[in-house]
Every structure is written in C-alpha cells, then in structure tokens.
AAA family ATPase
Amino acid sequence: MTAPLTPPPHDDSAHQVRQGPPPAGAFAGQGREQDGPGLRTELREAAVITVALMLGGVLLGLLWWWLAPRVPLVGDVLDKSWVVYLKDSEGEQAVGVDGTFTLLGLGLGLVSALVVFLLRRRGGAPLVVALGLGGLLGSLLAWRLGVWLGPDTDVLAHAQAVGRGVTFSAPLKLSAKGALLAWPLAALLAHLGLTALFGPRDPETAYPHGPGSETP
C-alpha cells in the first residue's frame, strides 16, 4: 500500500495583493494644494500689496503733517542781515516731530501686517519682500508729502514775510532718517509673528507602517 498523499502547504503569498507605488500625479495635486498658489500668482499678489502700501504713505503723510508738533522760529535782523533762531531753545518739539513719524509708522506697520495676514494666511518670499518694500516706499512718500504740505522750507523768506520778531513754524523735518524703517520693520516682524502663531502647519507625513515595524 502507498501512503496517502498530503496536499502541499498553502502559499498565501500568491493571494497577497502587492500594492504598487501610487500614480505619479497622486501627490502632485496634494503638493500644489499644500504649497499654495503658483509663483506667478504670488508675484501678482506681491505687486498689489507693494502698490497698496506705497499709496498708504499718503495717509501717513497726512497724519504726520496734522499731528506733528510745530517748532517755533523767530526772525531778526543783525548787522543788516536776517537770522532765524529757535524761539524755545530748550523745547523738544523737534524730537516730537521724529517721534510722531516713528509711532505712526509702527502703527501702520502693525495694521498692514494684520490685513495682509487676514487676506492671505500663507507666507512666502514674495509676500515678505512686498511688505518690506511697500512699507519703505510708503514711508518715503509720507516724508516728502509731509514736508510739501508743511510750512515753507525757505525759513529766511518766511521770516521776512511775517516780519521781525514774529513767531512762525519751522518746516517739517525728519532729522532721524531711521524713522523711515519703522513701518517696514514693524510690518515684517508682526507678519512673522502672526504666521508663526496662526499660520497653517505642515501636515505630518503618513507612513504605511508604524514605527518599529519591519517590511516583510
């Protein structure tokens, strides 16, 4: 008699479905969705932000011209020549002019950073450049506008026009040119903080196997 034949061992590997790599476009769409708009869109948005902030310099210039303290001057004639001097030599009005511009620039920098963050929560190099460049151009425009709207820059002619011993206001002058950086620096720092605190987070990478598992 012959021994009964035993069936061969069952090979489960033949029935296992091997999962191949995902299609090439599977993660491409996710990558574009996570990375935000394309470079062309970011550059267009950055250009709009730059122009908007530069035009915001008109508001800064008007506020500076309106709120900045006036520096009183007095004209006199010495040896048949006109001279102009400060009426209050110990006054701090000149410092207040620079301080007003700086505080207004800081305030507008915070507001512009908040508005840009609410409109577009993602960061990016074009957006950062737009905030810095737009704030700087807006500060320059505000400075020149305030000087243009302020009193006459020719103090000798102004003194002769008002008369000897009559007090008149000095032209708006930004002695500390570093005040021009208040707006762009405040905008950059505020936007950086808002992005770090409330900006979108990068999604965690999903692995097919848990940590410590081995691929058979």
